[in-house]
């Protein structure tokens, strides 16, 4: 998908997540082009970045925070189209495993996020402001997951290895519906707290090996 390709480019740069821009139209200030300039408006509908961007990644050598990438386009104040990417086994902030999945970790460090087992989604997002600081949202769409030859152990791969057929298992994939409901609270101009419950049908075949479905919380801090 085109959205996913653009999203991964954003992930390579480890962009800091920014809140979705206000749907309010704003006049250009300064009136640089004469008295009619105030009549021209601007609107920035694109939002996104890395939801899990963590400054500790640069402080603690040998540790990394798994990326959670989001890219969206606001169609109006309430409706947006959004796509996202994360690893099937999102470990958050963790010590890099240089043994069990060394080659995959090295590839990710070099910017190849597709080297590890991952999941992507494309969804329509409906946002509803509750108060000036609190907003709720829901997402409905489809998801696709891919298992690579890394440390991710799906039930199928575990059974094959137990039967001595591990080398026969190729790339595993899954597709299914995607849905999520969540809320975001703006503590101040720079800090946002959010919580989300999501269901990723494409990860269902991989059972407990994946945490693509479940409850997730995050804190976004801008500078």
In short:
The protein has 223 residues and is mainly β.
How would a textbook summarize the main sheet?
Answer: 8 strands, antiparallel
Strand order of the largest sheet: 3-5-6-8-9-10-11-12
Q: What is the alpha-carbon Rg in Å?
A: 20 Å
Percent in helix: 10-25%
> What is the average of the pLDDT values?
76
SSE string, helices as H and strands as E: HEEEHEEEEHEEHEEE
- Main structural class: mainly beta
Q: List the uncertain runs.
A: 13-31, 36-40
Percentage beta strand: 35-45%
CA distance, first residue to last residue: 31 Å
Please tell me about this protein's structure.
The structure is a single chain. The chain is mainly beta. It is built from four helices and twelve strands; from the N terminus they run H-E-E-E-H-E-E-E-E-H-E-E-H-E-E-E. The chain has helices spanning 2-12, 56-59, 102-109, 155-162; strands at residues 26-27, 41-42, 46-50, 63-65, 68-74, 79-87, 93-95, 118-129, 134-147, 172-186, 191-200, 214-221. The strands form three sheets. An eight-stranded antiparallel β-sheet has the order 3-5-6-8-9-10-11-12, covered by helices on one side. Strands 1-2 form a two-stranded antiparallel ribbon. It starts with a helix and ends with a strand. Mean pLDDT is 76; it is low at 13-31 and 36-40.
């Amino acid at each position: 998908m085109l959205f996913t390709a653009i999203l991964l480019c954003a992930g390579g740069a480890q962009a800091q997540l920014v809140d979705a821009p206000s749907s309010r139209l704003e006049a250009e200030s300064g009136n640089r082009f004469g008295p009619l300039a105030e009549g021209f408006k601007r609107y920035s509908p694109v939002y996104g970045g890395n939801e899990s961007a963590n400054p500790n990644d640069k402080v603690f050598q040998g540790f990394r925070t798994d990326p959670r990438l989001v890219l969206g386009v606001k169609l109006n104040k309430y409706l947006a189209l959004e796509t996202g990417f994360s690893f099937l086994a999102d470990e958050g902030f963790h010590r890099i495993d240089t043994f069990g999945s060394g080659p995959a970790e090295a590839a990710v460090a070099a910017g190849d996020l597709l080297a590890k087992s991952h999941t992507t989604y494309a969804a329509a997002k409906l946002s509803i402001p509750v108060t000036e600081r609190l907003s709720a949202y829901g997402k409905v769409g489809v998801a696709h997951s891919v298992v690579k030859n890394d440390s991710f152990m799906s039930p199928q791969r575990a059974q094959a290895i137990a039967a001595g057929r591990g080398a026969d298992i190729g790339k595993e994939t899954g597709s299914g519906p995607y849905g999520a409901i969540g809320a975001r609270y703006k503590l101040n101009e720079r800090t946002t707290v959010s919580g989300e419950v999501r269901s990723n049908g494409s990860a269902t075949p991989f059972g407990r090996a994946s945490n693509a479905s479940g409850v997730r919380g995050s804190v976004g801090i801008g500078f």
